[in-house]
Structure formats: structure tokens, C-alpha cells
Amino acid sequence: MHDIGNCVNRTDHAHSGAILAYNILKDMGMEVEERTEIMMAIGNHDENTGTAISDISAAIILADKSDVHRDRVTNLNLSTFDIHDRVNYAVTNADLKIDKEERKVILDLKIDTKLCPVLDYFEIFMDRTMMSKYAAKFLNIWFELVINGTKLL
Predict the structure, then answer these.
(1) Does residue 58 form part of some domain?
(2) What is the pLDDT of residue 44?
(3) Is 6 inside a domain boundary?
């Protein structure tokens, strides 16, 4: 539901999505406090305008910003890939793991560097990675990024 605003426009989708979600949840009979918290979490999940403001928003951020994988690519013509397609297609495995004992969340990626250098990942995902780091900090846990077996954060 956090990306429902994309049906309006990708630009500022978090804010339009927050309003849409609020109204949908209201129509479903959800209590005002709960739908307001969800609305605020959705409205704050975009890396350009948002930040973790609650446990729910931090969880949405961590899940959303970790969503990189081959299945996201619908255009399978490699010759027409833009950088987003190339990076997503190069990620052959993505696991978001929670280590309760160590109080950390780990994004473990396998990137096929024959398709895309790891640096390209950071070109489009650095802001998302930093947002994940701050969302984890909000939850008083550590965010760790592992790419091809190498711990980066």
C-alpha cells in the first residue's frame, strides 16, 4: 500500500499515496489513530522528502529501500536497459535479514558484476541506503549492507 501514490504520479507519490491510503483505511473502518499513523508512515517513505518518524515508518523504509532484485525488471531487452533496469537485473539474490541477538538488519545482495559494476548500484541506491541506515538507527538497531560477501556498512 505504501506505493499506491504511483497511480497518480511517481513524483511526490509518497504524499499522494498517504492521502489515498488514509481515505481507503477510513472507508474500511480503521480507527483514526491507526490510519493517521499509517498515513504518516507512507508520507515519509520517499528518500527525497521523508524520514523515519515512527517504528512503522522505519519498517516501511527498510523494506522499501531494500527492494532491489531481478524480478522488478519487466523489460527483458538488455540492449534497452537504463541504469535502474541494469542494476535491478544484476541483483541475482537479495535477502533482508533480521538478527535479533545482534540487533541489526542486514541487506545481503549478490550482484552479477558482468552485468553491472557495484558502483552503479551506489549511483542509484546511495540515498536509499543512507535512508535505511537512519531508519534502523531510529529503531535503535544497526543497518548492514553486504554485497557479494563484502560488508560495506
Answers:
(1) no
(2) 95
(3) no
The number of beta carbons lying within 10 Å of the beta carbon of residue 102 is: 11
Cβ density class 18-30: b for 16+ within 10 Å, e for less: bebbbeebeeeee
**138 in a structural domain:** yes
Query: 106, 97 in Cβ contact below 8 A?
Result: yes
From the list 147, 142, 152, 136, the residue with the least C-alpha distance to 63 is: 136
- DSSP structure class, residue 66: T
Give the C-alpha distances (Å, rounded to integers) separating 134 from 15, 56, 123: 20, 14, 19
> What is the domain extent for residue 125?
68-151
Inside any domain, residue 39: no
Count how many domains the chain has.
Answer: 1
Could you tell me which residues come within 8 angstroms of residue 20 by beta carbon, excluding any fewer than 6 positions away? 4, 5, 7, 8
Question: How high is the mean pLDDT in each 10-residue block of the chain (153 residues)?
Answer: 90 94 97 97 94 96 93 90 92 95 97 94 92 97 97 85
